[in-house]
Amino acid sequence: MPNEVFYQELNPLSFLKRSVLVYPKKIAVTYGDVCYTYREFHDRVRRLAGALENQGLQAGDRVAFMLPNIPPMLEGHYGPLWIGAILVAINVRLSSREIAYILNHSKAKILILDAEFAPKIREILDEIPGISAFVQVEDTVKKADYIPGLDYESFLSSSGPINSHVNLKSEISTISINYTSGTTGLPKGVKYHARGAYLNALGEVIETGMNSKSTYLWTLPMFHCNGWCFTWAVTAVGGTHVCLRQFRSGEVFRLVSDKCVTHMCCAPTVLTALYSSKEAQTHDLSGLTIVTAGAPPSPHVI
Q1: Using one digit for the tens of pLDDT, what is the confidence trace for 214-273?
Q2: 24 C-beta neighbours (distance < 10 Å), count
Q3: Using CA of residue 41, residue 74, residue 112, residue 17, what is the dihedral sign?
């Protein structure tokens, strides 16, 4: 083991721990009327970690999140990691059959889902015996009574915040498992380790020029490669996450203006939808840093 005086294993959890010390009163997350400072964000993450631990989750166990780009999905990138557990972020657009396969294959023990997707889970309740607890996020839809378990806010309130986090066995321990859509067969899982996520996040900070004054709009799904690791990158610099439940061109333009957005990531189809919308005629995005990937970019990229 290298000398601890000069050596520190890399873990993206350290981004949150630093930002809450440096920017405790700065806005970390906004979503509609919801607004959390870094101190509040940090507290919610630790409460999530405590609630998961109370359910018997331990280091190496998997917890699945099936949520759109709302604050609990962002918290899911830190809460499980706090106790050494592994995040499985599920594509909300997949079929019930694919979701069941991912839950079983990943050996997830807890499923945290948006209540909007409860009907999909109802179809497979008898096919996912490994899930010992369900937690529903009430955002636009109320909790479905036919799925057992607490709502998300009650789940968080069931535990006090955990102060000390669990150290990973090493910086190459798995912290997240992402699954493909299964277009060429069954979905395939890809592991992220702590070191890779940490370095990729810092690489994005450098490449996009983010800093503590940056405001990032979540147009890219957090379930897609952990939002290309911007879930950790924005926090690393103490930036502000602006959550967006569903992509709508008009809402994107409004948030860019109202929240003074500086950065966002968009697949080429999203960029096409933006510049093709009627709002593009009256809004200017020229000052924005936009990252695109996943297919050949449109020649009309903003």
Answers
A1: 999 999 999 999 999 999 999 999 999 999 999 999 999 999 999 999 999 998 889 889
A2: 14
A3: negative
Q: Token pair 């999140």 is at which residue?
A: 65
pLDDT tens digits for range 19-73: 999 999 999 999 999 999 999 999 999 999 999 999 999 999 999 999 999 999 9
* 233-252 CB burial, b ≥16 within 10 A, e <16: bbbbbbbbbbbbbebebeeb
